[in-house]
Design a protein that fits this description.
Elements: H1 2-17, H2 22-43, E1 46-49, H3 73-76, E2 86-89, H4 90-138, H5 148-172, H6 185-210, H7 217-244, E3 251-257, E4 263-268, H8 273-287, H9 297-309, H10 323-338, H11 340-380, H12 391-412, H13 421-433, H14 438-446, H15 456-459, E5 465-468, E6 481-485, E7 490-497
Antiparallel strand pairs: 1-2, 3-4, 3-7, 5-6, 6-7
Helix pairs in contact: 1-2, 4-6, 4-7, 5-7, 6-7, 11-12, 11-14, 12-13
Length: about 525
């Protein structure tokens, strides 16, 4: 729309200075209103979502600046823009609303699973105690006296239940890291197994003990001890299935980011596809550099420029013979296409030169600022303790001296959207508090770090979509490919099985390393 307004203002100025009448000016203005009305009708079908304001050090429009500008362009350039980073259509909004409804369903499913597991766990721990207490409550007078062995079994049951409680808390009572699309098969099987096991014990207890009112109390206590022992074995089985089985590496997965092609390799054990996707995402936030869409704008603009250079227009109309002119335009477009590698070479060389220059200026500015900090610290030591400057005030005092150099460097490397002024001040005060060097302060900005290094609101994707031809509950297999999608990019995961390695042994005789040195008796002196 801003382009249409610029065109309209240019046209109106031209008509004013050329002496056209008001009617001609009105007609020209009406003609230029028509494309703007088309844009308005198009805006009804698409919605632009602005990114949340987080006080970036610079505007995001700086990443779209032309590469051919001089080194002092930031001093004389003012850019005002309202362009956002993401544009989505009404279909995408409908899909997002559907995803929100699905997330509500996932929350209900998660709480339902936790409720069932909690109820079943409570039933498991109360069952042995109920087995021991019910005979004492219902037919206490008919029971045989409990001897020393029976009382020792009480202690055994108590300690075994305590061990089972601690093991269950350590294995199952953890904060969930993610909401998976399907249930965890092994955990569901363990819950079913525990339910059937406890139900069978209650059934036997009701038929053989409650109905007949068995008077052998020591046998009843022994029956409760056998239940606790079996529960301990089931807990051991849960450790093997849930924790130990996946430790041995069996597969190698290659993770490729779709936008820039950055890739990593990971080794995984026997996991389902959904749990493997969870492991991949956990490693992604730690190992991959943050996704920066601004780095792709230069290549896109260069490709669009070359595609525009291949267009041929016949200005004489379809009826005239303009084959010679068309051939000349095609030849010129082919020459521009052949020279595209030269343009790319010089663009990259100029960008690298500019980055090195900005980097040198930034390093010098930061070193001077930290030298000033050391001088201030030496002066503060001579003052009273109440007049000492805290690290936050010191960071605010030296930040203006390095702000311009840091600003230009972040613009040139297109990192300004990931570093707000508040985050830079916090990092600077942290470095001052821990007596860190200028090189330690600059490490965050000179070397793009992992995704977790930046502010959570600028990189974190609340929902990922798992796309797989196989069932997500099935295990990993050789050649399986699945995709993890978010709003800006996707991760393509390719699974390869670690090959079977056969080692052979070769025996070397120790005597083969021995040799005899023979010297001639007649030697020249």
């Amino acid at each position: 729309m801003s382009a249409a307004m610029d065109t309209e203002s240019t046209y109106s100025g031209y008509s004013h200075y050329s002496g056209h009448s008001k009617k001609a000016h009105r007609q020209g203005r009406d003609r230029h209103k028509s494309p703007r009305s088309k844009d308005g009708s198009r805006s009804e079908k698409s919605v632009t979502i602005q990114t949340p304001p987080a006080e970036p050090l610079l505007g995001n429009d700086a990443s779209r600046a032309e590469e051919g500008q001089d080194d002092n362009w930031g001093e004389t350039t003012t850019a005002i823009t309202g362009t956002s980073e993401h544009s989505i259509s009404q279909e995408d909004i409908a899909r997002i609303s559907k995803d929100l409804e699905d997330s509500v369903g996932l929350d209900c499913k998660r709480y339902l699973g936790l409720t069932v597991a909690a109820v079943l766990g409570l039933l498991v721990f109360l069952t042995p105690i109920a087995f021991i207490l019910l005979p004492q409550i219902l037919w206490r007078d008919d029971l045989e006296p409990c001897g020393t062995v029976c009382e020792g079994l009480f202690i055994s049951v108590a300690f075994k239940l305590l061990i089972l409680l601690i093991g269950t808390w350590a294995l199952f009572f953890r904060q969930p890291k993610a909401d998976l699309p399907r249930v965890f098969v092994f955990r569901a099987l363990l819950l079913v197994l525990i339910f059937l096991f406890v139900f069978s014990y209650w059934l036997f207890y009701g038929v053989r003990i409650l109905d007949s009112k068995d008077t052998n109390y020591q046998g009843i206590v022994q029956y409760a001890v056998s239940l606790v022992d079996a529960l301990l074995f089931i807990h051991y089985l849960a450790i093997v299935l849930l924790e130990l089985r996946q430790l041995q590496p069996m597969f190698t997965v290659k993770v490729v980011r779709s936008t820039d092609g950055e890739s990593r390799y990971y080794s995984l054990g026997h996991l389902s596809i959904q749990r493997a996707a969870l492991v991949v995402l956990e490693n992604y936030y730690r190992d991959f550099t943050v996704s920066n869409p601004a780095l792709l704008t230069a290549s896109k603009s260069r490709a669009a420029k070359h595609m525009a250079g291949l267009k041929v227009y016949n200005v004489d109309g379809p009826g005239n013979n303009a084959s010679g002119q068309s051939r000349a335009m095609i030849a010129a477009a082919a020459r521009r296409r052949d020279s595209s590698h030269n343009e790319l070479y010089y663009e990259e060389a100029d960008h690298e030169r500019r980055v090195r220059k900005r980097r040198a200026r930034l390093v010098v500015a930061v070193e001077e600022a930290f030298t000033h900090i050391k001088r201030l610290q030496a002066e503060e030591q001579q003052k009273a303790p109440g007049e000492m400057m805290d690290p936050r005030e010191a960071a605010q005092a030296i930040f203006p001296s390095m702000a311009r150099a840091l600003q230009k460097y972040l613009r040139t490397t297109r990192q300004q959207q990931y570093h707000s002024m508040e985050s830079i001040l916090q990092h600077l005060s942290f470095c001052i508090t821990n007596n860190m060097t200028p090189k330690a302060f600059l490490e965050r900005y000179l070397n793009p770090g992992p995704t977790l290094q930046y502010d959570r609101d600028r990189w974190f994707s609340k929902q990922w979509t798992l796309v797989s031809e196989e069932a997500v509950t099935s295990g990993l297999q050789d050649g399986v490919v699945f995709v993890l999608k978010c709003l800006d990019f996707s991760l393509v995961v390719n699974v390869k099985k670690i090959p079977f390695i056969k080692l052979s042994e070769e025996f070397i005789d120790p005597k083969s390393h021995k040799f005899v040195l023979r010297l001639q008796s007649e030697t020249s002196v």
